[in-house]
Write a structure and sequence with these properties.
By secondary structure, this protein is an alpha+beta fold. It contains six helices and seven strands; from the N terminus they run H-H-E-E-H-H-E-E-E-H-E-H-E. A seven-stranded mixed beta sheet has the order 2-3-4-5-6-1-7, with helices on both faces. Helix 5 (about 120-135) links the parallel strand 5 (about 105-115) and strand 6.
């Protein structure tokens, strides 16, 4: 595998089709953009009232259950180690964000909005609160995203795309 990958130009290492042509790939996740935020570039968004709940709060399970499995898996919200920053409609959480603390003082952001509440500024509001919390803890916020709307939220908050990621599982 190293020999095959070493012979490819760096620019195609996140191209799943090019890799499938030369490797026995069983599964692909991505590509996804990787964006990071320096504190001086942070553009907070606060269009809604954001509450703070523990990361394992039962209301998060309700939000995760309200979306497609792919959305729930993609957002990573079930794996946060921070508090969760949430927006409610009535007694239901309709948007939430938090982060998982990774090695090297990285705060990997996780954001999810219920599909029928998207496009209303809720993702930037909850993500902004999570980012502010990470920065207060002297962590480096990281945003990994495949969907275009998620990348747009990150850019609006001041994140800069610095790389891309492609995860593959090789058939054995």
């Amino acid at each position: 595998m190293r020999t095959v990958l070493h012979e490819l130009p760096v620019g195609v290492l996140t191209d799943a089709d090019r890799l499938r042509a030369v490797l026995p790939i069983a599964e692909v996740l991505g590509p996804a953009s990787l964006a990071y935020l320096d504190e001086c570039d942070f553009q907070p968004a606060g269009l809604d009232s954001v509450d703070v709940v523990p990361g394992e709060h039962a209301d998060l399970a309700g939000l995760l259950a309200s979306v497609a499995t792919d959305d729930a898996d993609e957002c990573g919200l079930a794996d946060i180690t921070s508090d969760a920053f949430v927006v409610r409609r009535g007694n239901r959480v309709v948007a939430a964000a938090g982060y998982r603390r990774w090695p090297g003082l990285v705060a990997h952001l996780c954001v999810l909005t219920e599909p029928n509440h998207r496009g209303r500024g809720l993702a930037p509001a909850v993500a902004s609160a999570a980012v502010a919390d990470a920065l207060a803890d002297r962590l480096l916020p990281q945003w990994r995203a495949r969907p275009y709307p998620s990348r747009q939220v990150a850019l609006a908050l001041g994140f800069r795309q610095l790389g891309a990621q492609l995860s593959i599982r090789i058939r054995v």
